[in-house]
Amino acid sequence: MVQIPNTPAPTMPPAPRSVPTSADVARLAGVSRATVSYVLNNAGAVRISEPTRRRVRAAAEELGYVPHAAARALRAGHSRMVLMPTLPVPAGPLYSQFVHDFQGALSSLDYTVVQYGATGQGDDDAARAWAELRPVAVLVAGPGLGPEGVAVLKRSGARAVVTLSPEAVEGARAVPLDHADVGRSAAGHLYARGRRRIGVVVPAERGMEMFSAPRLAGAREALHGSDATVTELSLAYTEESAAALAARWPGLGLDAVFAYNDEYAMLLMRALLDAGLRVPQDVAVIGADDLMLGRLLRPRLSTVRIELPSGRELASLVDRAVRSPAAAPESHEPYGATVVQRDSS
Amino acid sequence: MVQIPNTPAPTMPPAPRSVPTSADVARLAGVSRATVSYVLNNAGAVRISEPTRRRVRAAAEELGYVPHAAARALRAGHSRMVLMPTLPVPAGPLYSQFVHDFQGALSSLDYTVVQYGATGQGDDDAARAWAELRPVAVLVAGPGLGPEGVAVLKRSGARAVVTLSPEAVEGARAVPLDHADVGRSAAGHLYARGRRRIGVVVPAERGMEMFSAPRLAGAREALHGSDATVTELSLAYTEESAAALAARWPGLGLDAVFAYNDEYAMLLMRALLDAGLRVPQDVAVIGADDLMLGRLLRPRLSTVRIELPSGRELASLVDRAVRSPAAAPESHEPYGATVVQRDSS
Question: Which residues lie in Pro residues bias regions (chains A, B) (predicted)?
Answer without folding.
Answer: 7-17
